[in-house]
Amino acid sequence: MRVTPFRHDGLGNSAFLLDVGDGKAALVDPSRSVEPYLAAAADLELEIQAVLETHLHADFVTGSLEVAERTGSDLYVAEAAGVGFPHRPVRPGDRFEIGSVEMEPIGSPGHTPEHLSYVARSQDGSTPSLFSGGSLIAGGAARTDLIDPSLTEELTRDQFRTLHVAFRDLPDDTVLFPTHGGGSFCSVGGSSGTDSTLGEERRSNPLLQFDDEDEFARWFPSTFPAAPSYFRRLRPVNRRGPRLRRDIPRPVALDPSEFDAARSDAFVVDTRSTADFASGHVPGSLSISISGSFAVWLGWLAPADIPLAFLADEGSLDRVVEESMLVGYEDFTGWLRGGIEAWRSSGFPVVTSGLADPVDAAAALAGGAVAVDVREPAEFEAGHVPGALHVPLGQLAARAEELPRDIPLLVYCGEGARASSGVSVLERAGLGPLTNLRGGMRAWRKAGYPQERAARD
Which residues are catalytic? Predict the structure, then answer.
């Protein structure tokens, strides 16, 4: 069986196109960005006949309805998900054929209560494939705390049983195709690869080394990083069914006067580079460079109930809109025609922020500036600027009052992009003056400056 993966590095997730023979294909866990799937199917001369969901996703808006509407394919969803749109309800143990491939849904709760994994078997008896969603990933599994805190222990125990029981009758050479992977905030552990097998996971996955359910139930939730705030609102969107893309108006081009008028009721997102943002930006705008992780940080940092207005290069606007819709944003006021140059030349205010290389950053710290590390806890523990205050970017707006006022702040991350977002968040909170460490912790280390390591509890 030929499987074509589609990985979104920023989300740390994959979708899979499965060739089921006779010119037909099945698509597993597509996101709202459906064009790559449709293009690949056309290139491979495959007709997408079925779309399968392993679970209700919290980290992206599903593209299942979009694909089904554009291809006429059947949509398979767990009956227990209780979705509000036409579909074929699936229960554990149901077996059905798509082309020449038999699909067997296996109940695999833990990450979510309704979670299904799908075993694909071809008629020639070749190695089966397991599309495991978040129930088992290469080197880990997906977290169990995204539904409701009161359900975390129950779901964690479900996860333990899934790991030890759900797939035990499958052979070691079963090829594993997980939706979640390394880099996903839905997952714990894991690599970015999709080439593992059940045998490899049985030998090396640390979660499968636990024999005691109580011990696992105590330990597993302690490993979860903070969850992006938008995770709480996307699961309901995917349950009721998202709007089709054709029904979502695109942002319109606005001249500086129109943009200025619009921003009183909108939230401005600056998608340019960190250097461009530092050299001049619209007051109060949020800096998120249009990179692989744009969708995650937009969902975490931008309000969901206010229209978005973009400062973006026209050539990147399609991608900005695509990534925004991926995490549930659909209300777009417009984008600034002519960019910051047109804004500046029209006489509207422009704010600048600092951007310092390690030498200047070290001098600023020696002169009384305070370092603010906006990376995740594991990154901070592995090594940080001596004396740095640690506030992860996702918590920065809520915890800004913990930081000193009227003192220069040197904000840094791994390479500089998250720090630019941090500078913009702190600027909105009235702190400063603010400087971004160019190149982040990587540049600091490369320049040979000292670092501290945080002791684990």
Answer: 413
